[in-house]
């Protein structure tokens, strides 16, 4: 896969807009959200308050926050850019991200809300052996969160030269550190309640700005979509008419085609296994509100991707493919350049500020989830065997949030030259392989047991990361035309230990993880009828949820 | 029945409830809706992905102006996603919740006696 958020920015960039204005608008967002968070923060927090805001949000609020959590910079800048340059294939990519929400709506959200309280492992370990299942789940949650965090932090670094006009390693590192520190502040001061409000504010700003751009673009073409496509074709002579049909990006060879099918599978099954998405279902009091959350999320996310279609073709038509390719950040520059074309420096400043806000809101959600997993599943349930106070647990969660923040900052600095779309795709592939099979089996399959869960989680995790290591993503891609640099992670084209042909392993690892879950289960006789009855009755009726919240 | 819901074994109210016709009807109703619906949207999504991958020429066929079959198929994915969301939420609010609430209330009765 070529990158949606590509790094390795060329230096001879054309400069647009005013960096000072961009920075001021971003600083304004940080200031306003910090004030909101400080006002909401109410002294000491229980574990439930810190991880889930004690389930105190309404379905609508949570739905908006989910949109804010899910619509990352890769969605906003990446998909708009992909549509601008490659047309239909960018659109195709966004559809996977949307349809995936039906898995969450129909199979996962309500039942998870009814059977869990604080973390994803609550559900998976419900009727299985607590310690081994919690350790396995926590491992996979931390792995998914780490890859996703890395992608977002690296994205922040990559956006710097584009949006703030600063260049060079040092400046990028400073911005990554600033993003990390603000994010740690959000999490420590605000907990889940504060983070949720940041996500709500960001979602409203992002969707509003995109809607304004859409109407503006359509207005220029007399609200005629066909006319807009025509202009995009005229302004992209290299691709031309192909902009309107699939295949520009994914249709190069049979391998890229199979790779795209593999990616589609990971996207559609990965969303409902993303820990920071699942964590959001615990911030509402009941399964009815969880249902309402996903309803709102689907309307907002779907609406947003429809707007992105217009913004993407609009950037292609009004800015032009050549201009976009010359800008630092290339495809990622499409939406900001379109903003500049439409509304000059002020509008560019607003869109740039929102792009940074987007990254902040997403990393804060990831950090809360990862620190909850560490403090609750590893520290409390495994190390202390359940014997610790809520105060202690929250203290550990705060320390882990700082540690995760530091790891994210250092990882982001290290990974900023990596292909960010690949990191996001990897997070989805691990979520779909290591998490989703166990979630579905434990909710729907009576016979499912500990061995099945462990084989499926570890099998999915190890096979996904293993196949990635031996894929062309890591080594062995042919050098880019006119250079001796390979687009693989290892840029020396002479080093090649790849033998797995696909960039996306989901096509192999997802069925494998389902199979291992089945095989492990049928070879073990463990079965707890009482816990199964309790879990199934609770999952469908919501019985005991309100009671559990009192703790 | 015992007034302590936490007792293990045959006395457990959840085990007792799981075998009632009432609960089995709820379970059947839920699965009878979400499983076929999941099958439907996954098949429809992969038909779309496979057509886009292996029949780009067909997907690029223009219907009106620059509007292609592929674009209509893609927008169709949005329409079905929105429609399934709407239909499921309405169905669950009307058909599922009353059954689930009734069972929940019966369990509360057992607990608080």
From TrEMBL, chain A:
Record InterPro entries: Na/Glc_symporter_sf, Na/solute_symporter, Sodium:Solute_Symporter
Gene3D superfamilies named among the record's database cross-references: Sodium/glucose cotransporter
Sequence intervals crossing the membrane: 23-42, 63-85, 91-112, 133-151, 171-189, 201-219, 260-278, 298-319, 347-375, 396-414, 420-441, 453-474, 506-525
Keywords (A to Z) from UniProt: Cell membrane, Membrane, Symport, Transmembrane, Transmembrane helix, Transport
GO MF annotation, one: symporter activity
Domain of life: Bacteria
GO-annotated biological processes: plasma membrane acetate transport
Topology in membrane: Multi-pass membrane protein
UniProt keyword Ribosomal protein present: no
Keyword Transport: yes
Location(s), subcellular: Cell membrane
A Pfam family it matches: SSF
Gene Ontology terms: cellular component: plasma membrane
Similarity annotation: Belongs to the sodium:solute symporter (SSF) (TC 2.A.21) family.
Name of this chain's protein: Cation acetate symporter
Organism: Knoellia flava
Source species taxonomy: Bacteria, Bacillati, Actinomycetota, Actinomycetes, Micrococcales
UniProtKB/TrEMBL annotation, chain B:
Species the sequence originates in: Knoellia flava TL1
Transmembrane segments: 33-55, 67-89
Any Pfam family matching the protein: DUF485
Coiled coil ranges: none
Domain of life assignment: Bacteria
Name of protein: Membrane protein
Residues making up the signal peptide according to the UniProt record: none
Taxonomic placement: Bacteria, Bacillati, Actinomycetota, Actinomycetes, Micrococcales
Record keywords, A-Z: Membrane, Transmembrane, Transmembrane helix
